[in-house]
Amino acid sequence: xxxxxxxxxxxxxxxxxxxxxxxxxxxxxxSREKLGAQGVTTDFVQDNHSLSAQVGTLRGLHFxxxxxxxxxxxxxGRGVLFDVAVDIRRGSxxxxxxxxxxxSFENGKQLLIPAGFAxxxxxxxxxxxxxxKCSDSYAPETEGALIxxxxxxxxxxxxxxxxxxLSAKDAVAGAFASFDSPFAYEGAxx
Length: 190
Hints:
With 190 residues, the chain is mainly beta. The chain is built from 2 helices and 15 strands. It has helices at residues 32-36, 168-171, and strands spanning 2-5, 12-15, 18-21, 24-27, 46-52, 58-64, 72-78, 80-87, 89-90, 98-104, 110-113, 117-123, 128-134, 143-145, 183-184. A hairpin with a 6-residue loop joins strand 1 and strand 2 (12-15). The two termini are 16 Å apart. 33% of the residues are buried.
């Protein structure tokens, strides 16, 4: 597996090697042993899989607060999505900065998002599936969200003039300026 550091400490791009032949391919998308040897020690406890039927479906920016904060390993099982992580760790040198990457079935890339980041994505192909591992189980009483189009964060979702397809909850999420982050920066731990 190829592991690349992004411009934001702790946020990693992981590209598994694909072994292919006339039948298709095989890829090992997670290996505690192999990634542990590269410093990734996250313990995942839950896998999630969602389908977004239409292009322009935007989900996020979501997070779970401590003590149920989640790290995520995100990949695209079918289609294409633009995946985004926003650093919301107080005291981080990159606090409020975002990183985005296109994840697709074709490129096989994965984004490892540590706890202390808000996460979201927008679909760029119909019938797009996102598959991700979480380091803690879903705890709705700890969930939070930031508004997808917050001007203080300034994410370029690549939507042009098109309006995204949002859930009612995501359409009224909070602003970054009034956000009191429950996360503290503790270095680039993964």
